Amino acid sequence: MTKTDGKTDGAASARLETQHETAGHGVCILLAEPRGFCAGVVRAISIVEKALEMYGAPVYVRHEIVHNRYVVEGLKAKGAIFVEELDDVDDPSRPVIFSAHGVPRAVPEEADARGMMWIDATCPLVSKVHMEARRHHEAGRHVLLIGHAGHPEVIGTMGQLPAGAITLVETIEDARTVSPPDPEKVAYVTQTTLSVFDTRDIVEELRRRFPAIAEPVKDDICYATTNRQEVVRAMAPRCDLLLVVGAPNSSNSRRLVEVAQSAGCRRAVLIQSADEIPWEIICPGMTIGLTAGASAPEILVTGVIEAFRGRYLTHVEIMHMREENVSFKLPRQLREGRASVNGRP
Fold it and tell me: How many CA atoms within 13 Å lie on the side-chain side of 294?
C-alpha cells in the first residue's frame, strides 16, 4: 500500500505495504483519506450503544440514527427500535433518541408533554446551525436556508422557527428569485452536508442581491463534508472510475459522486457495499478511486478492497489530504451514567 500526499503532486511519501503491481493485468485502488465516519456520526452511534448499556433494550430511535443500512441493522440487532414519529413508540416509558440530523423544536416539546425520556443525538455542527437560525430570527432577520427539500436536517432546521420565518433556497435560480419581507434584514444558513462548490455559487448570488445579508460566523458546511470533498476533487482526474461507499439517502455521499463527476471523473458511482460494485465496467489496468461518505463504516470499505483482491491483482495507494482529530462529547446524562426525564442536562 502506497501513501500519497495530495499536496505534493501525488508523490509517494511512504511505502506502507507492498501489493501486486498492476502491470496491465491488475487494478490500482486510489483510497481517499480522510473518508468514512465523522465525529458526529461516531457520537450518534455511541449514544445509542451507551443508552442500550445504561437502560437495557429496547431503546427507540426517531428516524435512522445515521443514513446507513449496515449501521442501522447492527443497532437493531443490539435492541434499538427505529420509528419515524413519537406516535410509533409502543412503550413510552423507554428512552427515545433523536437522530444525528436534528429534529424540529416541536418534537422534544411533544416528548416532554408525554413525559418521555429523550436523548438528543443531533450532531453539534447541526445544532450550531439551529442556534444561528434562532439568533437571526430573534434579531428580526428573515432566514434563508440553503439545502435540499425533504432532507431530515432541513426539516429539523426549518422547524426551529415559526412558519414563514425561514425560506428554503435549493438552487441558484431560487437565489435569484427569493423575496424576503425586508431585503435589509436577511440572513442565511446552510445544510451541513452540501457541496462546498455548489453552495458557493448560491451564496455569491445572495450576497449580490442582498449586500446587508448576515452570514454564519463560520462556514456551516461541516469539516468532514469539506475534507471528503477536497480529497475526491484531488483524486478524481486520476481515476477511470470512482466508487463512493454510502447510502442512497445520504446527502454527503451523493455530493461526493457529484464532486467526482465535476472534477473530471465522469464514471462515479454510489454503492452501499461490495455487493454493488459495477464489475461490468471494470477491466484490468484501471485506476479505481474509493472513498466513503461520513455515515459509512470502514468495514464496508474493507469489503470493497477485498472484493477487488478476489478478482484482480490489486495495488492500493492512499490519497492523503489532511488529518482529522475532531471528537464530540456524549450528552451529560450518558457521560454521568444517570437517567433523565428528558434530554436536557
Answer: 29
Domain with 312, as residue range(s), is 2-38+223-320
The secondary element (H helix, E strand) that includes residue 118 is strand 118-120
| pLDDT at residue 4 in the model | 54
287-292 sheet: strands from edge to edge? 12-15, 2-5, 313-320, 26-33, 287-292, 241-245, 268-271
- The answer as to whether 132 is a domain residue is yes
pLDDT tens digits for range 59-115: 999 999 999 999 999 999 999 999 999 999 999 999 999 999 999 999 999 999 999
State the pLDDT confidence band at 324, using cuts at 50, 70 and 90.
very high
Cell numbers given for 50: 451507551
pLDDT surpassing 70 at residue 2: no
The domain boundary residue, chosen from 166, 186, 209: 209
Q: What is the pLDDT of residue 18?
A: 34
3-state secondary structure of 23: coil
- Helices 39-55 and 69-78 pack at an angle, to 10 degrees, of 10
**Of 139, 98, 93, residue with least CA distance to 115:** 93
Other beta carbons within 10 Å of 6: 18
**At 199, which CATH number?**
3.40.1010.20
> In terms of C-beta density within 10 A (0-12 exposed, 13-18 middle, 19 or more buried), how is residue 137 classed?
middle
Q: Smallest Cα–Cα separation from 33: which of 7, 66, 72, 68? A: 7
In angstroms, the CA 25 to CA 28 distance is 10
For residue 342, is it within any domain? no
Indicate the pTM of the whole model.
0.87
Q: Which residues are catalytic?
A: 153
Q: Are residues 140 and 117 in the same domain?
A: no
As for how many domains the chain has, the answer is 3
- Same domain assignment for residues 66 and 144: no
Residue at which a domain ends, from 97, 123, 149: 123
% the chain with pLDDT above 90? 83
115 shares its domain with 131: no
What's the pLDDT score for residue 197? 78
Does any domain span residue 325?
no
